[in-house]
């Protein structure tokens, strides 16, 4: 699974789950993606990406206790698994290798 | 802030798109964002946003679904919609297994209802839907006045033709049949003109059917055999065509064998013999006429054509104005003529068993509903956790189908296995009994009833679930029987009680009717009397020889050791009809009496039956052909002809005796219901056998003996065979069983209605019990408080009984008028009792009330045992 390329949406979702920690659920993941990439996704699309990550074993989900407010509901929360963290490291290392020194080259061309 | 929720249609659409396990999280998340946008950007923008969000969710939702489906294949424990359904079925069955009592009771009740209805439908279908499988019944009609047509009249009809493609004349006969050295036996058959098979449109399986000319007088007699006679009596002889058999003492050539299914006019018919026809034959008129219409013939066009035939007949023949059938000549469909009302008792039973099925459905509905009400807590929790209403409705249907489907399968087996058993007991004509058999439609009927019952039961439960407000339910989840759904239960039970009233009233009416019949004064003493049907073939004796043969046989029977007396008649009372006509007294020769039964009897007849001669004398050996004509008459005839005066010595004449001969009344005997126990009293004239002027080929000997019936029958049979082997003993029967058979139909009806009524009572009682138990359980707290405040157990029991009384009273209030309305359907089967008389209704109401009281007893005790402290603590 790890050798297949990970689509950008899923990668963005995975990073967001990491950043959000305990606060990762549909709406917050969506906002995080939008804030970081400037691309707005529908809630359903975010869930599709998260479920895909779950099927890879990179995230896990659970239902939260009902929110402490009137008519409060339970949310489906997501969290990074060990495999997810390892996958992120791999992706990050790969990305670093890919991007290493790119700024210098871009500056040379611009100059 | 009224409009805080997202657009409803869009929200529904979104939930519809999503797989079950993501339905709630996703749509809740979307709603959360929606509410934020309402606050920040306003409601209109938020709605627009919501709709866009739904539109953008379509593709991801499909992806989510696909993933959910894949994960199910892997089996990681999460479930989707279809799996959810299977889970619901599993849940349904698991909870049924947890409460096997309810499951078994429900299944058993439905199995009986569905099985009984299916089997009864099978019987009705066999009799009513297509009783003559090889005949196109729509094209064959019977002329009115069956059994009244003479040969000359038929010759005119044959010549006239009218709209008919062909017309035949025929009559049923019981003929002696001899093959090889075996003694003669009687077999039932038909004698008809050559058009018989043309009219019916049926051809032979083997050999040929009649051809024109087969019915010419003087030609060699020919006969077509039934499949049954060919196989049973002639060993399925492949060379049977052309063989000669002796029927009615005359050699007949076999020309064909009919297919097994051919059963005209009844399944017991064993042969069809050609009837020699000419204008000078059959002038005393015993024939039936049947005609075949062209395919395109309009039934409306029939009346004028038959009226035309009527005037033709009047031109040619003389008709007595009182008996002129040509005025009202008509034609009826053949099935109506041959089967007529015979399907009515089974149709009645079909209706009764259908009512029973309805009661069973109501009962099972109450069971399922009770379960649904008990599970309202669970249902409410599931609804709160996001189970859709549709899912809950589905669950209710599955619960009901979980009972209906096994009930239906079991019912199918009940119908199939029970068919043979109930066939023997059904009130159908004996000649058709053996031919009733389950056919291919029955499984479909059972299936249809199962689905119908399942849906009906499910609907009740569904209504209860959907009408119970969920939050309301949660709050009350711990206290069954107090919610809104609880109202459906009493309504069901009242309906059940009302239907039970209908069955119990009809069963009571039938039971009273049969006991009236059994207690009826019948004017004879049947104990120790044996009835022996004897017959001779026309070819074996001339009329004088016949008379002599029967005389010899009778003398021989009287000599059998143990026989006290014996007599002979041409028509056995309680069984045989016919031989009737008007009489005239000497004083008023112009006044014609109503129809009077004409019975030929030998000396010893009255003595053998134990009939008492109230005035005058009995018939003696000296009343022979040479002596002056005398008659003994029944009391009713005496009162009819000579009211208030002494009939002895009066003179009368009949249409059957030679004109100009006056017969002197020498005795009066008690009335006997001649056509069976259920029949009205008819006037009878008894004529000395030797003075009757005619000797029939078939007669009945009545024997009074001290022997047990079986021994007497054997002794009489061997005495007759010993005297003359050409005299056939058709059957021997105790007179008690003849009388019993004359009320077989009401007895069979009573049996079935008693069983149905009993089952209905049982179901009704269960229903009443269920409602009361449920009600008491819901009010244990209240009862506890009452007791704590000084209420007595008796007072609490009174409350329960009052509740029971309301249920039964409501059921009676609906059921009694309903039974009155339906009583017309079975009043024809009642004897000296009416379905709507007070005693019948009171008896039924009493039975119902007592049964309900028994059903109320257990809930009463539970209520009275309500423990104030325990109840208060438990809540």
Overview of the structural elements:
The complex is a heterodimer of chains A (111) and B (875). Chain A has 111 residues and is mainly alpha-helical. Chain A contains five helices and two strands. A two-stranded antiparallel sheet of chain A has the order 1-2. In chain A, helix 1 packs across helix 3. Chain B is α+β, with helices and mostly antiparallel strands and 875 residues long. Chain B is 53% helix and 14% strand. In chain B, the strands form three sheets. In chain B, strands 13, 14, 15, 16, 17, 18, 19 and 20 form an eight-stranded mixed β-sheet that branches. In chain B, strand 6 and strand 7 form a beta hairpin. In chain B, helix 17 packs across helix 25. Chain B starts with 7 loop residues before the first helix and ends with a helix. About 2% of the residues of chain B have low confidence. The chains are: A mainly alpha (111), B alpha+beta (875). The interface between A and B is medium-sized, with 17 and 24 residues.
Helix share bin of chain B: 40-55%
Gyration radius of chain A, to the nearest Å?
17 Å
What percentage of amino acids of chain A are in beta strands? 5-15%
- Oligomeric composition of the shown chains: heterodimer
Summarize the SSE layout with pairings.
The complex is a heterodimer of chains A (111) and B (875).
Chain A: H1 8-20, H2 26-37, H3 43-56, E1 59-63, E2 76-80, H4 82-99, H5 102-110
Antiparallel strand pairs in A: 1-2
Helix pairs in contact in A: 1-2, 1-3, 2-3
Chain B: H1 8-17, H2 20-41, H3 43-74, H4 81-98, H5 100-128, E1 140-143, H6 151-160, E2 166-178, E3 185-192, H7 196-200, E4 206-207, E5 222-225, H8 227-234, E6 244-247, E7 250-257, E8 271-274, E9 288-292, H9 302-316, E10 331-333, H10 334-339, H11 344-374, H12 376-384, H13 389-425, H14 430-433, H15 441-467, H16 470-476, H17 488-518, E11 529-535, H18 543-558, E12 563-569, E13 580-581, E14 583-585, E15 596-601, H19 605-609, E16 613-616, E17 630-634, H20 635-641, E18 651-654, E19 663-669, E20 684-688, E21 698-705, H21 709-723, E22 728-734, H22 735-742, H23 744-778, H24 780-788, H25 793-822, H26 838-864, H27 868-874
Parallel strand pairs in B: 3-8, 5-7, 15-20, 17-19
Antiparallel strand pairs in B: 1-9, 1-10, 2-3, 2-6, 2-9, 4-7, 5-8, 6-7, 11-21, 11-22, 12-21, 13-15, 14-18, 16-19, 17-20, 18-19
Helix pairs in contact in B: 1-2, 1-3, 2-3, 4-13, 5-11, 5-13, 5-15, 11-13, 11-15, 11-17, 11-23, 12-16, 13-15, 17-23, 17-25, 17-26, 18-21, 23-26, 24-27, 25-26
């Amino acid at each position: 699974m790890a050798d297949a390329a990970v689509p950008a949406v899923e990668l963005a979702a995975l990073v967001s789950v990491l950043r959000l920690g305990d606060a990762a659920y549909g709406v917050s993941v969506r906002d995080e993606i939008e804030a970081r990439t400037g691309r707005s996704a529908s809630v359903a699309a975010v869930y599709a990406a998260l479920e895909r990550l779950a099927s890879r074993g990179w995230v896990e989900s659970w239902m939260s206790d009902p929110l402490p407010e009137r008519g409060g509901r339970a949310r489906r929360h997501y969290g990074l698994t060990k495999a997810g963290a390892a996958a992120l490291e791999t992706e990050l290392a790969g990305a670093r290798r890919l991007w290493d020194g790119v700024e210098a080259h871009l500056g040379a061309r611009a100059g | 802030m009224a409009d805080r929720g997202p657009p409803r249609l869009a929200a529904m659409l979104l939930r519809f798109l999503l797989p079950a396990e993501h339905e709630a999280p996703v749509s809740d998340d979307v709603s959360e964002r929606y509410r934020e946008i309402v606050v920040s950007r306003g409601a209109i923008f938020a709605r627009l946003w919501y709709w866009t969000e739904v539109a953008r969710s379509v593709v991801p939702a499909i992806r989510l679904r696909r993933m959910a489906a894949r994960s199910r294949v892997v089996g990681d424990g999460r479930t989707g919609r279809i799996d959810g359904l299977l889970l619901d079925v599993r849940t349904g069955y698991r909870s049924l297994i947890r409460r096997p009592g309810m499951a078994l009771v429900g299944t058993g009740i439905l199995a009986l209802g569905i099985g009984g209805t299916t089997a009864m439908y099978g019987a009705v279908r066999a009799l009513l839907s297509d009783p003559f499988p090889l005949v196109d019944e729509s094209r064959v009609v019977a002329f009115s006045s069956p059994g009244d047509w003479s040969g000359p009249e038929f010759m005119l009809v044959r010549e006239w033709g009218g709209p008919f493609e062909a017309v035949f004349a025929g009559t049923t006969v019981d003929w002696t049949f001899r093959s090889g050295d075996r003694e003669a036996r009687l077999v039932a058959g038909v004698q008809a003109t050559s058009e018989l098979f043309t009219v019916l449109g049926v051809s032979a399986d083997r050999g040929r059917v009649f051809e024109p000319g087969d019915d010419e007088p003087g030609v060699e007699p020919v006969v077509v055999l039934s499949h049954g006679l060919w196989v049973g009596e002639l060993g399925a002889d492949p060379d049977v065509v052309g063989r000669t058999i002796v029927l009615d003492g005359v050699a007949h050539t076999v020309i064909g064998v009919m297919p097994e299914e051919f059963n005209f006019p009844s399944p017991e018919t064993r042969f069809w013999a050609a009837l020699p026809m000419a204008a000078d034959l059959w002038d005393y008129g015993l024939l039936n006429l049947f005609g075949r219409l062209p395919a395109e013939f309009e039934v409306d066009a029939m009346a004028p054509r038959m009226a035309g035939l009527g005037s033709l007949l009047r031109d040619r023949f003389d008709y007595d104005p009182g008996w002129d059938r040509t005025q009202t000549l008509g034609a009826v469909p053949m099935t109506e003529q041959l089967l007529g009302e015979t399907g009515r008792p089974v149709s009645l039973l079909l209706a009764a068993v259908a009512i029973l099925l309805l009661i069973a459905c109501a009962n099972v509905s109450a069971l399922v509903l009770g379960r649904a009400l008990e599970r309202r807590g669970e249902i409410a929790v599931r609804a709160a956790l996001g189970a859709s209403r549709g899912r809950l409705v589905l669950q209710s249907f599955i619960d009901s189908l979980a009972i209906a489907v096994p009930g239906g399968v079991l019912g199918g087996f009940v119908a199939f296995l029970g068919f043979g058993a109930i066939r023997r007991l059904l009130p159908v004509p004996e000649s058709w009994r053996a031919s009733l058999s389950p056919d291919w439609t029955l499984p479909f009927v059972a299936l249809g009833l199962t689905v119908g019952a399942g849906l009906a039961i499910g609907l009740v439960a569904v209504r209860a679930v959907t009408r119970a407000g969920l939050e309301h339910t949660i709050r009350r989840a711990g206290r069954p029987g107090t919610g809104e759904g609880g109202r459906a239960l009493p309504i069901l039970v009242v309906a059940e009680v009302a239907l039970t009233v209908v069955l119990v009233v009809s069963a009571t009416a039938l039971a009273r009717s049969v006991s009236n019949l059994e207690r009826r004064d019948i004017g004879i003493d049947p104990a120790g009397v044996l009835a022996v049907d004897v017959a001779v073939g026309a070819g074996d004796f001339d009329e004088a020889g016949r008379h002599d043969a029967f005389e010899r046989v009778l003398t021989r029977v009287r000599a059998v050791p143990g026989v006290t007396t014996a007599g002979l008649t041409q028509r056995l009372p309680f069984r045989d009809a016919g031989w009737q006509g008007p009489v005239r007294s000497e004083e008023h020769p112009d006044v014609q009496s109503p129809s009077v039964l004409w019975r030929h009897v030998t000396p010893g007849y009255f003595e053998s039956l134990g009939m008492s001669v109230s005035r005058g004398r009995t018939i003696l050996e000296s009343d022979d052909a040479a002596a002056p004509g005398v008659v003994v008459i029944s009391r009713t005839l005496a009162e009819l002809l000579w009211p208030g005066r002494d009939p002895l010595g009066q003179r009368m004449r009949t249409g059957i005796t030679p004109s100009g001969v006056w017969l002197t009344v020498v005795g009066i005997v008690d009335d006997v219901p001649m056509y069976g126990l259920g029949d009205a009293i008819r006037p009878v004239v008894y004529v000395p056998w030797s003075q009757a002027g005619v000797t029939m080929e078939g007669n009945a000997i009545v024997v009074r003996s001290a022997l047990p019936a079986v021994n007497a029958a054997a002794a009489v049979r061997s005495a007759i065979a010993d005297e003359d082997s050409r005299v056939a003993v058709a059957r021997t029967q105790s007179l008690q069983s003849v009388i019993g058979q004359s009320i077989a139909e009401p007895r069979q009806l009573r049996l079935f209605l008693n069983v149905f009524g009993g089952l209905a009572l049982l179901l009704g009682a269960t229903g009443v019990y269920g409602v009361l138990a449920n009600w008491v359980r819901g009010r244990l707290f209240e009862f506890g408080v009452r007791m704590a405040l000084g209420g007595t157990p008796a007072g609490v029991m009174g409350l329960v009984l009052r509740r029971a009384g309301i249920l039964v009273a409501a059921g009676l209030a609906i059921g009694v008028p309903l039974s009155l309305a339906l009583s017309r359907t079975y009043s024809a089967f009642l004897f000296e009792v009416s379905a709507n008389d007070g005693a019948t209704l009171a008896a039924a109401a009493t039975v119902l009330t007592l049964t309900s009281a028994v059903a109320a007893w257990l809930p009463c005790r539970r209520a009275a045992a309500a423990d104030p402290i325990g109840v208060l603590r438990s809540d």
